[in-house]
UniProtKB/TrEMBL annotation:
MF-aspect GO terms: ATP binding; protein kinase activity
Highest rank taxon of the organism: Eukaryota
Region of interest called Disordered, as start-end residue ranges on this chain: 541-562, 590-646, 665-807
Biological role stated in the UniProt entry: Regulates COPI-mediated retrograde protein traffic at the interface between the Golgi apparatus and the endoplasmic reticulum. Involved in the maintenance of the Golgi apparatus morphology.
Protein name (database record): N-terminal kinase-like protein
Biased composition (Acidic residues): 632-646, 754-763
HEAT repeats: 507-545
Any one GO CC term of the record: endoplasmic reticulum-Golgi intermediate compartment
Native species: Physeter macrocephalus
Residue span(s) of domain Protein kinase: 14-314
Cited CDD domains: PK_SCY1_like
Subcellular location: Cytoplasm, Cytoskeleton, Microtubule organizing center, Centrosome; Endoplasmic reticulum-Golgi intermediate compartment; Golgi apparatus, cis-Golgi network
UniProt keyword list: Coiled coil, Cytoplasm, Cytoskeleton, ER-Golgi transport, Golgi apparatus, Phosphoprotein, Repeat, Transport
Matching Pfam families: Pkinase (PF00069)
Amino acid sequence: MWFFARDPVRDFPFELSPELPEGGPPGPWVLHRGRKKATGSPVSIFVYDVKPGVEEQTQVAKAAFKRLKTLRHPNILAYIDGLETDKCLHIVTEAVTPLGAYLKARAEAGDLKELELSWGLHQIVKALSFLVNDCSLIHNNVCMAAVFVDRAGEWKLGGLDYMYAAQGNGGGPPRKGIPELEQYDPPELADGSGRAVREKWSADMWRLGCLIWEVFNGPLPRAAALRNPGKIPKSLVPHYCELVGANPKVRPNPARFLQSCRAPGGFMNNRFVETNLFLEEIQIKEPAEKQKFFQELSKSLDSFPEDFCRHKVLPQLLTAFEFGNAGAVVLTPLFKVGKFLGAEEYQQKIIPVVVKMFSSTDRAMRIRLLQQMEQFIQYLDEPTVNTQIFPHVVHGFLDTNPAIREQTVKSMLLLAPKLNETNLNVELMKHFARLQAKDEQGPIRCNTTVCLGKIGSYLSASTRHRVLTSAFSRATKDPFAPSRVAGVLGFAATHNLYSMNDCAHKILPVLCSLTVDPERSVRDQAFKAIRSFLSKLESVSEDPTQLAEAEKDVHAASSPGMGGAAASWAGWAVTGVSSLTSKLIRAHPTAAPAETNVPQRPVPEGLPAPAPTPVPATPTTSGHWETQEESKDAEEDSTAADRWDDEDWGSLEQEAESVLAQQDNWSTGGQASWAGQTSNPGHKSQESDWSSWEAEDAWEQGWQEPSPPEPPPEGTRLASEYNWGGPEPSDKGDPFAALSVRREAGVQPRQDSWGDDNWEGLEAESRQAKAELARKKREERRREMEAKRAEKKTAKGPMKLGTRKLD
């Protein structure tokens, strides 16, 4: 009968890498890279081949195998698995690199920092403290070759071959027999007996001093070189000198050495060490401490090593969000660390967390996600955006917090290229229509217009034809001057998407009306746009063959490339308006009184619009997007487009701020008179920049019943006269007009900042006066009744008992 012996090395669940050995500590072990057969995860494998005639060395290797297998500490090399046969010993540990090779590679790359060295030495000293104070063991082999570094940059103490018990009966430390290791022995061991060692930690602390010298100065040539600190930092030199002192009694205990280095001004007293210590104890920290830690963490991540951020900070952030209820505070450091990840790793670790965060109802988390969307949008695929992210993001359009509404609008610039036909051309346009027509915040209406101009190229041809001209025309009638500027720039940014008919009949009449706008900034932009549109029309008029080129994009399908010019022209507008929004909403409540108070609940359908500012409108009767049929399907002159791109369209933020500087008190102007129609009909408003606007075309009248002037010459219809809904049939209703609720003159609007600033004091006084008058009347009436009762009693005299009073 045959018996086949199984090879334990072949059945070992780990395999050596075919790469050449990395080397290792001077001694019997050889360090190899390896991997686990089942998962492919990387490991390090220390291999010792048993040879005849070296029994003493084999016993040392077996002792190291046993020590490493039984000792467990975060700063000691982590044992995973092992194999012991008659021919070899295998020790499998976490994937590590020898400290010497690691420091050399980091120095060559120029990434080695003192912060990293301070934490590494902290870990080695902590491991020695554990061995000496907790286990009563002497390492007896502390040197550069006994220290390893894992993928997170954590230093691990290995080289346990010559470890012995501090209180054993062996009579002294084991003999090494390797010159490269014996040069780190302290001078008191020169007699070979070890009796001169007065403290159990003295020899290891001398060797720690040698390690510190090698970390900063390179390999130690001889023991005499320790007298010169060399490149050792000044804050560490006093403590280093204690370690390499000739008197073993004065060498500090590892615990005391750590305490001294962590003192104020010490080498290990820095933000990096504090962060690591907090992460080691994060599971037992209070929620308030975790919140504060994560809030301050993002400020320090830029100075931390990349490997540390990827492999130590990132897992803790993910764990804190998943199980620790950390909330929005983990977002900023999470996305900062995400920059160090590759695309595949980002998809695996960050994107699932981001998708889950979008479903959160926490406002702080939602606004931080929207603010930092550009950091992760490139990693999101279209199905994820349309099914898991966009349905949650659109809730921000209806939020009562203006900051969330603003960030939601801005986020559409990034999401639009990934949205499908329905979400982009139907759902998003409905929300934009409502925001532009009804939002109380002027800067948000402005942002909506700017965003629409930037994403215009992604819209379908039918949506562009139905939406753009009407939306930008509406923006030019907004009482908020930057919104009117945005409307002009919107026309300019999407100039290639309009037919010559639209340019002449719809756009130019609207722009011409702005040439007499009360604001200089609006007039300047209007004149620039008019000149550009006229130049385009003139070039086609002189050479009709250019018509096809000039109208090539009018009916073209949505294309990201078409929006390149629009994106560049309007890119500054969103940023400018974003900062402007904060100024208007928070810092300058009096500059834009209609934008300060936000309703806390939505108004049901059918009630007056909540916005204190009049609804921006183009004259309309049917409330539909304009649906005039296109008659030309041709292309645009590229040279004309180049000239257009060279135009200096100015800075919307600067213009908006100049408008704010000029308008000291909007509440006393033409808009206040509009508010007075419902608050205090008898109040006369003062003269303002908007008085001429309202005298010419009241907002509410413009929405309800157009009053066209005298008919122009035949064949010409101005934008202000055109029946935008028209008798022509329309496939789709106008979402802007359909969602805007018409305001009747006799209906009191919801309380807003305009009313607060102008009428609240008068109404309060009026109510107080009425209450006082009613109280006086009650007092007079009471006195009259008492007087009458007294007269009756006097006339009739006292009543007799038993009689009944008859009235």
